[in-house]
Amino acid sequence: MKFILISNDNVFIYLSKLTVRKNHKIQFLEYFTDTRKSMEYLTQNASNSELMPDIIILDIDMVFEDVLSFINDFELIRLHIKQKIKLYACSALAKSEEIIIAKNHHIVSGHILKPITEEKLQKMGIPNLESRSSP
Description:
The protein is an alpha/beta fold. The protein has one domain (about 1-130): 3-Layer(aba) Sandwich (Rossmann fold), CATH 3.40.50.2300. Helices cover about 40% and strands about 20% of the residues. The protein has 6 helices and 5 strands, in the order βαβαβαβαβαα. The protein has helices at about 10-25, 35-45, 65-75, 95-105, 120-125, 130-135; strands at about 1-5, 25-30, 55-60, 85-90, 110-115. The protein has a 5-stranded parallel β-sheet with strand order 2-1-3-4-5, sandwiched between helices. It is globular.
C-alpha cells in the first residue's frame, strides 16, 4: 500500500513517518509541505499507477494553504487516474469550519485527528505487520 502525506507540520510529518515505518508495510511515496506541489505531482503522474498512492492524508490545519481548493482540484484530476485513491482529512482539532466542509465532501473518505496512530491506520484499512504475518 502506498500513501502520500500533505502537511506543513514538520513534527506531524516526522511522527507519522515513524509510526508508519515501524508498524506497517507501506511504501511512503512522498510527503509534501504545500498543496500546489502535491497537485503537480498527482497531475504529472496520473497515468503511472506505480507513482500513484492508495491513500492521501491531507492536513487541513495547514497555515497559508487552501486545502479546500486542493480537495476540489483532486476531484477533477481523479477522473484521469485509473486506480481508486482514498483521501483522508487530518487535523489537530475535532471541530472547525474546514473539517465540517471536508467531512461533507463526497470524495473525502474520512477525518482523523492528529497524531496518526496504529488504531487510526487500521480504521483506514491499513493492516499492521502482525496481522499480515498471522495465519
